[in-house]
Amino acid sequence: MPEISPFQPLPLPDGHVLTASARGETLMLALDDAPLVALHCEADSVRCVEVCSADTGLALWSACYWLFAHQPQLQRLYWQGLELDDDAVATALRSGLLQLDEQRLVSERQAFWQLAQPWQRGPAAADYPQQMIISGGKRHPRRPPKLEGEVYRRFDMNLQAWVSLRTLDIDADLARFSRWQNSPRVLEFWQEGGSLEQHREYLEKLANDAHSVTLIGCIDDEPFAYFEAYWAKEDRIAPFYAAGEHDRGIHMLVGEDHHRGPHKVTAWLSALVHWLFLDDPRTGRVVAEPRADNARMIAHMQRLGFYREKEFDFPHKRAALMAISRESFFDRGPLC
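Below the sequence we write its predicted structure tokens.
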């Protein structure tokens, strides 16, 4: 993993930029050059020297983001210089940004990355009321209406690029999707080659399927990959493992050759899984069923923290059941 400079700017999805400078042993954080907070950091302890912004909550969140993003191995921050009776501290405790550990204020990496904003764009599935229905002979929660537009955006510090996800637009993306599916590398594993008309029919069928979402992955806003995210409970995978009500599954392909490589897989796969876990806090696992002989993809997934539970037979392929739990992803995932 490349080393991240302690003073590398950190862009935010809303267009603002976090920056840092050193004043002796003090770390000065600023948002668009407006001072936010002064910190004294030592190992996993951070002392709030001075809050320079009128928005104390923003200053605390920014400090956590800066330190967790620049130090991917850092698991927790023990705070000094904060008062429990401060309104902003109380709000941070309610949100999970801060927690109490034997009367010490602490920020946990695992909890921080589960705070949906600002990376999640648009409404979350968790906001939709739960109502059990039966479709296709399976009992499952009614799924929320399909999203449109961008659903996730985060600047990846290792890649030094934006990684984003947007919903597929059939008219705008059909030619691109068809070209990707007809490339020999993708065709070997997806086996969905065909004409524009056949691919339009394929995508329209998914657009009318309430249990799946089709996505385009982008790096610095350049489309490079196609993903299908599905609710596992009502999917063909459900008979092969004990699917939870809100488990999600994924199908993945990288269409553009210049965006291949292990470092990019780490960036986009962590972004995809991150969004799925943010979309609904009730999602306990994300699963996938790549072809069992797709050793390269399986190795990429294992590096992220997926484990290979078993192999099983679909009518069209021998598949490996790959899974990652919420706890494992947020405990050891490579978010930065």
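The chain is about 30% helix and 35% strand.
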